[in-house]
Give the backbone structure.
Amino acid sequence: MKYKYVVVGAGLAGITMAERIANVLDEKVLIIEKRNHIAGNVYDSYNEEGILIHNYGPHIFHTNDREVYQYLSQFTQWNDFWHRVLTYVDGNLIPMPITVETINKLYNLNLTCFEVEEFLKNQAVELSEIKTSKDVALSKVGQDIYEKIFETYTKKQWGIDPGELDTSVISRIPIRLNRDTRYFSDRYQGMPKHGYTKMCEKMLVNKNIHILLNTDYKEVIDEISYDTMIYTGPTDYFYDYKYGKLSYRSINFVFETYDKEEFQEAPVVNYPNDYDYTRITEFKKLTWQEHNKTTICKEFPTEEGEPYYPFPTKECKEQFARYKEDMKQEKKVIFIGRLAEYRYYNMDAVVRRALQAFDEMIK
Ligand code: FAD
Ligand code: UDP
């Protein structure tokens, strides 16, 4: 078999590259995907009850990148959606991320925005250097809020103390000195009107694109001649683990359907201190689907399983840096995506990365 371009992995990174190659270059491209479906971790589908679920956990699109938003808007319409998260602390549901409302509910106060700024200043721990996620939290909100909101959630999510995690992890969560209780503050936010899988299907509508599902690329790659491979799978697997296995955090998604219209107050409720799961998502509250039953998903973080989150510790980054040196030597392979680049990319960032990689490739 001969293809000029081969893409390994049918996630957003691979699909974006394939779409560009097929539509802009008018070249044939083969996508090889080991799962039995396209869309990677943004895959959504209807369950037995006919409720649209996100099979790999809740996905909310949000970005400040206008070009990425416009690019994806060619393939889907959007339901305007402002994501909201509540977190269960001391028996109460309070808004996440930390806003004036959160502080007031947590301490049963009625502070103004200015007073909350002062309050947090008094709580904050002065540190000479911010080296870890624990430092990030302590320096912004102090010990008590750190313990109530971040410490145990993070230990559950990552299996290690926040003091061992890179600053990037807890820095994802903003601290707002206002009453904006939206989870994200990006300019563009939404849910694809008919779901992510439908959006991905549309991106792949081109006779130049051929897809091989249920196939690990190593099973077939020797029989394919190609000029360029776009690789979006795990890098350690590509190199047969020559520098050891990279650590990823996995999640066991447990779905439950209830014979009632509504399960919880918000699309996502976090449980930092109670239960073994980190959060519960109620899908109908993301998708606006009407149905007399409702499906939820509990997330139990685990060490073993599908690789979802690259592990943001110093040691893991150093280990990946060794692979990176080898990656730079590859003439025929472009590595992009969450697994291949071992980066905690959001959807918009992965699409941006693929668009950039495409531009560099054709130059
Ligand atoms: P993937 O989607 O992982 O695609 C890689 C593909 O490669 C997979 O389909 C895999 O099966 C395939 N593959 C791997 N190895 C091989 C092989 N050997 N042969 C063939 N195929 C192979 N982002 C947001 O912007 N908003 C959110 O709300 C959000 N929520 C998230 C929640 C969870 C629980 C997780 C895990 C991620 C979330 N993300 C979110 C991030 C988002 O999922 C990623 O940015 C995006 O899916 C990355 O796309 P990708 O193509 O890099 O990787
Ligand atoms: N986090 C936390 N408490 C929360 C929510 C998040 O401690 O209630 C920390 C946790 O370490 C998590 C990180 O902040 O991994 C990023 O949270 P986000 O909601 O962005 O996680 P994702 O959706 O990527 O799993």
Summary: The domain at 2-81+189-245+311-362 is CATH 3.40.50.720 (Rossmann fold). Residues 51 and 125 are 46 Å apart (CA to CA). The two ends are 26 Å apart (CA to CA). The chain has two domains: 2-81+189-245+311-362, 98-171.
